[in-house]
Amino acid sequence: MAGRETQFHGSGGLPRVNVEQFGRILTTFADITLLIDDQGVIAAIEVSPENRALGCLDHWRARNIRDFLAEESLEKFEARLGELASGKVDMVPAVELNHVDNANWEFPIRYMIHRASSDGSLLLTGRDMRHIAEVQEQLVRTQLALERDYEKYREFDTRYRVLLEASRDALILINGRSARIEDSNAEAAQILGISSEALSGASFAALFDTGRRGDLMELLANAIGTGRQRLTLSVPRTGRSVAVHPRQFRAAGETLILCRIDAEDGTALAHEDLASSLSGFFDSAADGIVFTDASGRIHHANDAFLSMGDLSAAREAEGRSLGEFLSRGGVDLKVLLENATRFGQMKLYATRLKPQFGSEFPVDVSTCRIGGEAGLRFGFVLRMAAGRELLRDGGGMPMRDDEARNAMDLVGTAPLKEIVAATTDVVERICIETAVELTNNNRVAAAEMLGLSRQSLYVKLRKYGILEREPAAGASADGKPGARPEE
Description:
The chain is α+β, with helices and mostly antiparallel strands and 487 residues long. The protein is built from 13 helices and 17 strands. The chain has helices spanning 19-29, 71-85, 130-166, 186-192, 196-199, 216-226, 266-284, 303-308, 330-343, 401-409, 416-438, 443-450, 454-463; strands at 5-6, 17-18, 32-36, 42-47, 91-101, 105-115, 122-128, 170-175, 181-184, 231-235, 240-251, 254-263, 288-293, 298-301, 345-353, 361-370, 377-384.
């Protein structure tokens, strides 16, 4: 561009264009135009005013273009210079170069490189490729997101398949609109007497003999709508009757019905009848029935217990400790829970029930352990014991006749102080024996019940000769199976 005018030659020739007009054409045609010498030093630079995102690049002038190229672009740039230096061509194919500026700004430019003059100068006209790079980056991110979603879908599908096949219940998934089976497990195929492959896509109504095959979906809808959630149907392939328990839900805009199928044999009916009977017994029993967790907090209580505790509704009992309703509180509850945990059950534990508003009254409490270590629970039955004395074996509560007679014989022969002391010893021994018996020879619990320290209890046990007695079978003084009391 050293002269004042430039001649372009094409098919038939083009009119002569002056330098100023030619520069404007270049800036319109290209986003960036560079004129470099044979060493790569930038002699001139023009940035299109239509592309303001590139900013001002005047500081590139008189600098080598290689200073503004990313490392991976240097090799491509040198390769194109080598093709031009061979003299065989005046223009090389377009090349995409990544520019860097201030070490924190990188942008791609697609250049056409032209030989500008005989002294080795080159003209580079470039198009900004950032918008294409951004689109490519979005496509890559979208592809990665799709792959992650697909992997998550496969994970959930695998879990669903494993759960479906591992279930002991026969399960069938029906499309609510087409009434055809979308999925099922092996248990369902076995009960219906058909292969799993044949079940897929089959009409649900065709599997049963209802006399009104076309109305089976209507029967299912009625069962779901009325809350009965149960249909008894006949399977013609096996000749068996089955109970169908439908449950409707929506997923991704589709209405689906999940059906659990039970074979109506004697065992299933017996279990269902037993569950119904137990539920009725819990609601109507005359004795209080309570179910608690492992710590003794109430989960369920029947009406009889609510009446005994002066409670108006079950929610007033739920979440509270059963010990709040027992006269000795945590001591009673601990004895009941520990014995039921060790031996599975405990019968007729005598204590007093403490209502929310009324006076305390005596009750007999029986308890049993329910479930294993993971889901440990306890069931309690509380029966009113008012109007009768509680008789116990091996050291009962009432004072024996010979002990009362010995106390009366002391009258007139000993001061009242000595008579009272002797009687106090008798009562103290009876109380200690009763506490030991109530706790099933658990000395720690007995000490808590009597309000004594463990050491004081052992002193009194030794004093009255109770320490030498054999503990109950399977029990120990410290609440540990097989352990002997320590002095």
